[in-house]
Write a structure and sequence with these properties.
Blueprint (H helix, E strand, L loop, with lengths): L20 H11 L8 H5 L5 E4 L14 E12 L10 E7 L2 E7 L4 H7 L5 E7 L1 E3 L2 E5 L3 E3 L10 E4 L8 H13 L10 H7 L4 H9 L4 H5 L3 H27 L10 H9 L6 H15 L5 E6 L5 H14 L3 E5 L3 H17 L4 E4 L5 H13 L4 E4 L13 E6 L7 H8 L6 E6 L5 H7 L4 E5 L9 E7 L3 H13 L3 E5 L14 H12 L3 E4 L5 H13 L4 E4 L12 E7 L6 H8 L9 E7 L5 H12 L3 H12 L24 H17 L6 H12 L3 H8 L2
Parallel strand pairs: 4-7, 10-15, 10-16, 11-13, 11-14, 12-13, 14-15, 17-22, 18-20, 18-21, 19-20, 21-22
Antiparallel strand pairs: 1-9, 2-3, 2-5, 3-4, 5-8, 6-7
Length: 700
């Protein structure tokens, strides 16, 4: 049960003064999720991205030109727009003994201005001060205050990330109202560590973040931010420590064989294993042969050969007379895994079966019976593998592909389908070292840094959408020479609100030019139509496959050597890298065209630049982390905003190391968190919503 001290923070945002149903819906879309409306705590952790310096200048003459200026002046004159010139602005002259400033208002309400800025009154004015024809002017001042209210204008005003429907002043007001709800929390940090780090209490740190003393306090690495960041890291590391403890509760079981099946598979491979693959296979087999349970992450860039490593691990389980499963995040990827692995499994004498949500009737019953009686050695499928009703005769190994698409609790569910199941998780999204420690601190890690021999570099170009006709012409020449191409669009159908190419629309446009050579694939199509579209492209019947990001992971068509990503500026770096990884898998030279619509913002421009410069997934991951934040650690959300997450593992390596050590010692000394500090830690886990840890604590 959540500690009652946190109840004010977990109330809906509509309980805050001034947040009605309409504003609440905007905040739900901005800070909530599909299953959870926005709460006060979400606003409290919505941190400033910067601050505006509103410190007053001594006089108008001293006020900075071209920057935010704040000064006190007397209203001396109102100049209404000339008759017949409705678009002309309303001007008000304010002055002090050193000079004057013209305040400019377009579409002005003259009565309101007369009340707010009466002639002869003194006002505090704040806004961007500029020169116009040699005269000082300020267009639409941001703040106009009676000097009696000077104390209400902060010297440094925090600036928060915004969304459509919420202005800057409203956001500041409601976020600070949320921060005021923060209660005095029981202290979960070690007193000695607090003293050494000079960390303030939690509530005081929250207040400091939302009331910055200077610009650095809003933007930089301050004591308050480090305090809250450390709390977040500690919550993550304690959650991972609890997962490790849960894994250790169940005794392991050694799984080893004579190597015969593995030898037959390796002999059937049309290529030699890389050194990285051989080392990863050796590490996995060593883990499986031990009496402790294996929990290993296999991390490799796109095209580095993770699936073969997984097959060799599953072969080792079969040699011991036990079963394995390979779980993929999408049905397309699961079916492709099954199709590619089945011939190798058959040559090695293994029986492989596919199980997804689409399998029905007699076929599904036959698979379930084979899993239950042990006649099926390897099951490949989607999340359907860990649902109720799926039982295994003797499950030894669970392989989870594209780990970032699943939560830790799903990994635990799959691992509970047998006795002492070893778990191997794979990710094709390279992860920086410090972030790997954060996300996967409960695992051993194997890295595949090489690509199979013969892979050629992919030429990547960024092209303006204004050159669309040139791109279509280049695609035509490519397919005439025997190549195949992907054309990826962000949406399935046209959108009235987004000016983004739709897959359906692009398919129809390209089909008018290339006819039946164009196919269509997207996630809203029925399963059999998706299979047919993919099969037609694999067979070469269609030469251009227009698709959404459903092809992002795992899809492997060696003859496809051209990739067009339309509206590339709207994709994240990791997704662009994954999509590009669908080509360059054969012997032909490959080209990726990033079709963008300008003008580009700085982040979008940085993404496209790094994509042109490198294919190194680990370098791309570092840049992606810098640009967009680390996302959820123990959930399935893998993208975030640097402003929404407090901890910064890429720069806070010392904090991360301290949090790991503190979490380990805490769980060793107080495994059920029953001491006073342990109870405070429970509040910390709820505060940062480490749901896996909370579930494990509830289960004892």
């Amino acid at each position: 049960m959540r500690p009652s001290v946190l109840d004010p923070l977990f109330a809906p945002v509509t309980t805050l003064s001034g947040v009605g149903p309409k504003l609440g819906k905007v905040l739900d879309r901005f800070l909530g999720s599909e299953t959870q409306a926005a709460r006060v705590v979400d606003l409290m952790f919505h941190l400033p991205s910067g601050a505006v310096d509103r410190r007053p200048s001594p006089s108008i003459a001293d006020a900075p030109i071209g920057d935010i200026a704040t000064f006190t002046a007397r209203v001396s004159e109102h100049r209404a727009a000339p008759a017949g010139k409705a678009k002309a602005p309303y001007r008000i002259i304010v002055e002090d003994e050193t000079g004057d400033v013209t305040l400019v208002f377009f579409h002005a309400d003259s009565r309101h201005l007369a009340q707010n800025l009466p002639i002869g009154a003194y006002r505090i004015i704040s806004g961007k001060l500029e020169l116009w024809e040699g005269m000082r002017q300020m267009v639409h001042p941001e703040r106009v205050l009676d000097p009696k209210l000077a104390a209400s204008l902060p010297a440094f005003e925090p600036v928060y990330p915004l969304t459509e429907g919420i202005g800057a002043r409203v956001m500041m007001r409601i976020v600070q109202a949320a921060a005021e709800r923060c209660p005095e929390m029981p202290e979960w940090q070690d007193p000695a560590f607090l003293a050494k780090s000079d960390f303030p209490p939690f509530r005081q740190a929250v207040e400091a973040l939302h009331h910055p003393a200077d610009r650095k306090a809003a933007e930089g690495d301050t004591v308050a931010r480090r305090r809250i960041g450390y709390d977040e890291l500690l919550a993550s590391q304690i959650a991972l420590a609890l997962v490790r403890r849960q894994q250790k509760k169940i005794a392991g079981r050694a799984t080893s064989g004579d190597g015969g099946i593995r030898f037959r598979i390796q002999s059937a491979l049309p290529f030699a294993l890389t050194e990285g693959q051989q080392k990863a296979i050796a590490d996995i087999h060593s883990d499986m042969a031990k009496p402790e349970r294996m929990l290993r992450l296999l991390q490799g860039d796109v095209g580095s050969g993770k699936t073969v490593v997984a097959l060799m691990a599953m072969a080792a389980a079969a040699e011991a007379g036990r079963q394995s499963v390979l779980m993929a995040p999408t049905e397309i990827l699961a079916r492709q895994h099954a199709e590619r692995l089945a011939p190798l499994a058959e040559k090695a004498g293994l029986k492989l079966a596919l199980l997804t949500g689409r399998e029905k009737g007699a076929g599904r019953r036959q698979v379930l019976e084979g899993l239950a009686n042990g006649s099926i050695d390897i099951a490949v499928g989607t999340h359907a593998l860990f649902q109720e009703g799926v039982a295994f005769h003797d499950l030894a190994l669970a392989v989870v592909d594209e780990q970032h698409r699943f939560g830790v609790h799903q990994r635990l569910l799959l691992g509970s389908k047998g006795e002492a199941v070893d778990v191997l998780v794979m990710t094709a999204t390279p992860i920086p070292r410090t972030l790997a420690l954060t996300w996967f601190g409960d695992m051993d890690v194997s890295i595949l840094s090489e690509k199979p021999a013969g892979r050629k570099p992919i030429v990547t170009r960024a092209i303006s959408s204004e050159r669309y006709d040139e791109v279509v012409g280049a695609i035509g020449r490519a397919i005439e020479s025997g190549a195949q191409a992907y054309w990826v669009c962000p949406l399935v159908q046209e959108s009235d609100t987004l000016d983004v190419a739709a897959a359906q629309e692009r398919y129809e446009a390209l089909r008018e030019i290339f006819g039946a050579k164009v196919g269509l694939l997207h996630g809203q199509m029925p399963g059999r139509e998706k299979d047919a579209a993919m099969a037609g492209f694999v067979a070469g019947d269609t030469r251009i496959l227009v698709s959404t990001t459903v092809i992002e992971v795992g899809v492997d068509v060696p003859n496809a050597s051209v990739m067009v990503i339309e509206h590339a500026e709207r994709f994240g770096l990791a997704q662009l890298h994954q999509l590009r990884g669908r080509i360059g898998r054969g012997s032909a030279a490959s080209t990726c065209l990033l079709l963008y619509k300008g003008p580009l913002g700085p982040i979008a421009e940085a993404r496209l630049t790094i994509m042109r410069e490198t294919e190194d997934g680990f370098r791309i991951a570092e840049e992606d982390l810098r640009l967009r934040g680390e996302g959820e650690v123990l959930g399935t959300k893998q993208s975030g905003s640097p402003d929404w997450r407090i901890a910064r593992p890429e720069t806070d390596g010392d904090l991360l190391a301290a949090a790991r050590d503190d979490a380990r010692l805490l769980i060793e000394r107080d495994p059920h968190l029953e001491t006073p500090r342990g109870q405070a830690i429970r509040a910390l886990l709820y505060l940062f919503e480490r749901d896996v840890a909370i579930r494990l604590l509830r289960a004892g």
